[in-house]
Amino acid sequence: MKITRFAQLGAVSAVAALALAGCAANEGGSGSTDGGGSGSTLSGEVASGGSSAQEVAVQAWTAGFQTANPDVTITYEPSGSGAGRESFQAGAFPFVGSDRAFNDEEIASGEFAACVDGSGIIELPTYISPIAVIFNLEGVDSLNLDAATVAGLFAGTITNWNDPAIAATNPGVTLPDLAVTPVHRQDDSGTTENFTDYLYQAAPSVWTSEPDGEWPLSSGEAANGTSGVVSAVSGANGTIGYADASRAAEEGLSTVAIKVGEEFVAYSPEAAAAIVDASPFVEGRTEGDLAIELERDSQEAGVYPIVLISYMIACQEYADASSAPIVKSFLQYVASEEGQQAAADAAGSAPITDTLRERVNSAIDLIVAE
Question: Digits of tens for pLDDT over the chain (370 positions)?
C-alpha cells in the first residue's frame, strides 16, 4: 500500500524546523549557516562528488557555507551519479550527490564503507529540477501535448508535425507538413532516466521500454550532454528533445505544456516541487532515507510530472567521525531556505517546500556528529 509521504510527518512545528535548519552540527560548537561568517568553530576539509546535474547548485551551496564557515573547505567532483554512488559505497567520499536514490538491492548489500556497520544511510531530496520538452518548429512558440503524444514523438510512432494527435490538443495552431526529428542524449544520463521514467509511467501503451539512463532506441538523433541536445534542437527546424529547464530558458527555446488531468501544465519551480509533494516515499526505508517514488501519472492539479530529483546521500553514523560535523552542518545549509534559494538563483532548480524541509531537517538531525 502506498502512503502519501506527508502523512508520515506528524505535528512538527515550524519553529522547531527553522531552529534545526540553522543550528550548528559541530561537536559542542557553533558552526554558522546564516551567511554571517562569524562564530563558527568548524574547520577541516571534506571531499565529495557525484551528480553533474547538481554541480552549479553545489557550487552555490559551497560558496554560501564556506562564507559562513571560513575554516572549512568542501570540494565536489561532478563525475556523475553512478561514480558518486560507487565512491560512497567504497568509502571514498563521506557524502555524495546522486540523480537517484540507492535501490533496495544496493541497500541490502550493506556495502557503505564510510558508515558504521549497521548504520542507516541518509538520502535527502534537496535538488529538484524540471525537465523541459523542447522543440524547434518555425512559427510555433509553444505546444500542448499529452503523455501518449510525447511518447509517440520520441518512440518514432508519430513522424510528422501535422499528425492528428498533435493537432487535437493544439486547435488554431498551424502545424507544418514536416518530418519530426527526435533528439536524445547519447551519454548515460540521469536526465534520460527521469524522462524515460515519465514516458514509461504516463504512456505505457506507447512507451514500452523500462526507464534507463541510456537511451533504449536506435532511432532519432543522438547528442552528447545537455549542451549537445540544446544545440541540436536549436540548430534545426522540426526537432524535439528534452533538457534541464534552466537551459531551455537560457536559450529561449520553445517548450511543451504537459497534460495533467484536464489541464496543460507548463514547467515552473512551483509545479516541479508540487509533484514531489504529491508523491510517496519509497516503502520500507529507514527514517532518514527519504527516497521518493515519483508519481509521473499523477492527475493532481498544478503538478509538472517531468522532473529530476537529485539526492544528497550521507551516513547516519560515520566510521570516521571527524567529517560528520561538517557534513551535517553543510546539509543543514543545503536544506535551508537560504541554501535552496541560492541553488534556485544559480541553477534554476525548484526550492523544496516547507513541508518537505521539515522532513529533510528531521533526517539530517539523525546524523551522529559528536
Answer: 333 443 333 333 332 332 333 333 333 333 444 444 447 889 999 999 998 888 999 999 999 999 999 999 999 999 888 889 999 999 999 999 998 899 999 999 878 999 999 899 999 999 999 999 999 999 999 999 999 999 999 999 999 999 999 999 999 999 999 999 999 999 888 889 999 999 999 999 999 999 998 999 998 999 988 889 999 999 999 999 999 888 888 889 999 999 999 999 999 989 999 999 999 999 999 999 999 999 999 999 999 999 999 999 999 999 999 999 999 999 999 999 999 999 999 998 999 999 999 999 999 999 998 7
Q: Which residues are paired to 122 by β-bridges?
A: 314
Are 293 and 280 spatial neighbours (Cβ–Cβ below 8 Å)?
A: yes
CA distance 24 to 13: 19
- Pairing between strand 72-77 and 44-50? parallel
Q: Which amino acid is at 19?
A: A
Residue 155 CA to residue 208 CA, distance in Å, equals 9
As to burial, measured by CB atoms within 10 angstroms (0-12 exposed, 13-18 middle, 19+ buried), residue 3 is exposed
Q: Which residue has the cell 541510456?
A: 214
Helix (H, G, I), strand (E, B) or coil at 25: coil
Question: Do the Cβ atoms of 117 and 93 come closer than 8 Å?
Answer: no
Instruction: Collect all residues with Cβ–Cβ distance below 8 Å to 204 and sequence separation of at least 6.
Output: none
Cell numbers placing 245: 529547464
Total residue count of the chain as it appears in this document: 370
CA torsion angle for 277, 309, 201, 218 (degrees, to 10)? 170
**Which long-range contacts does 167-170 make (Cβ < 8 Å, 24+ apart)?**
169/143, 169/144, 169/145, 169/259, 169/264, 170/143, 170/144
pTM of the model: 0.80
Q: Which of 57, 51, 18, 84 is nearest to 65 (CA)?
A: 57
Q: Which amino acid is at 58?
A: V
Beta bridge partners of 241: 134
